[in-house]
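Lab channel / #folding
Pinned by the channel admin:
"Please post every new chain as: sequence first, then the structure tokens as a reply. Keep commentary short and put observations after the output so the thread stays searchable."

First post following the new format, from NK:
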Amino acid sequence: QIEWICFWVLYIEAINDGGRKFLVVNIPLLGCIPYLRSLNLGSKGQCNERANRVASEFNVLLQSLVNELNTNLPGATFLYGDGYNVQLHILNNYQQYGTHLASSFRSKYT
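Reply from TO:
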């Protein structure tokens, strides 16, 4: 419940300062950050699928929360920013971004 208390305090402060539009960005592909990739010993250099699955599951709940906030808080607009799927698209379509080697692209940009 502490998370909700923190949210409401920040929300009330933002509303008092004139805020009416909020962007809530989800968690990116955590399993593709270099540290977690280095721990993925069975698949050296590959993204950690377990960490990505946890991030994806969290993001589903976060998007549901954003929808709930839009329904229950009139006068405010909450936008859901989907960084996870943007990053996933880039990793799956790396050729469109100037490289032909997925591992090279992932090393450079994750």
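NK: Strands lie at 21-25, 77-81.
TO: also worth noting, The two ends are 33 Å apart (CA to CA).
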